Amino acid sequence: MNRKLFALFLILSMFLSGCAWLDGSYVHVTPHQAGGGENQGEALSAENYSELLAVLKDMVAAGKNGGVIYTGDFDGDAMNRGLKMAGDYIRVTDPIGAYAVENISFEQGASSGKPAVAVSITYRHTAAEIKRILRLTDVDAAQPAVQKALQNCDSRLVMLIEQYRQTDFDQLVQNLALTYPETVMESPQTVETVYGQGSSRVVELSFTYENSRDDLRQMQTQVRPVFDSAALYVSGEGADSQKFGQLYAFLMERFEYKLETSITPAYSLLRHGVGDSRAFATVYAAMCRMAGLECRIVTGTRQGEPWTWNLVWDNGNPYHVDLLACNATGAYRERTDDEMQGYVWDYSAYPESVRSAQESAENPPEPVVLEETEDGAQVSVGGTEQTEAP
User: Fold this and answer.
1) In angstroms, rounded to a whole number, what is the distance separating the alpha carbons of residues 142 and 153?
2) pTM of the model
3) Staple partner for 95: which of 117, 196, 261, 330, CB 3.0–4.6 Å?
4) Tell me: the pLDDT tens digits for 131-177?
């Protein structure tokens, strides 16, 4: 037998063997494999719409390309309506189906003399991608998942959130980048896509970085020892004020800093001495957190320009600390709201900072120190003259 006749015989044999389990009244449709999943032919059953929908949802969640569903006494007209409704539900309402399914089609007929439906499903995502979807109970559980994805420098995170509520995930990413500069080297551009309808949704987050994943991970390995050293620098006994001052000295004495903005704030500040007020505030807050000290980041303006500083809890009381202003005066200093002349922030978002009468007597206000800007103007960076109470 020549090669052409043998190949034709082999193809016919495979075709006949693959369809031997179907009755003549049943048309088998071979599923499209592009981006698809697994193609199991196990027999399932559904005798009403609810059962049919449950079977289809299970098939999609498993990434199956197709299968046979025995329909039993499912009424013919009800079956036709049910198939259309189920197909629409899978592609639009079901969160995993809306995320993964490209198309779903049905062929009605009989198998082994029993009424049945052949299901064919094509996907825009693979079965492996579907199985990697992270299952979460609610949006609150998404924060550590997003934080881990940023730490790993991942380009994508897909979550099935059972109790979904509308959330600004782009803002969440920015907040995490500010809070954890020791692991998040660059705040990525974030694109959020939500799939499905109802209380359960699939949320896909796509992250775009200007630096490569390898470069970002290399930066992590280079800055982490600095943060660890800062925590060890203030370990042991001592007042909070002393520890805050020690961390200030640890950070500010590393370089003769150059004030510039960088897309990799912690790395640029700790490895090259380049950073802006936000870089100083975020790195200092992270060092305080790792040392067991309470410190927050405050965003606002100083002399009308965007500015970032810290709020530290010294002996249980909150005080403002502007590292760059301290550096200009030559010493670490904590200030109350009344001492923050020239600064504006959302006063309702932060606790009030006041000093007791005893503290005021023990810590008299410093004289005003003027700092010259690039355009020659002089601005106040310390003291209490011309105080503007919030």
Assistant:
1) 16
2) 0.78
3) 196
4) 999 999 999 999 999 999 999 999 999 999 999 999 999 999 999 99
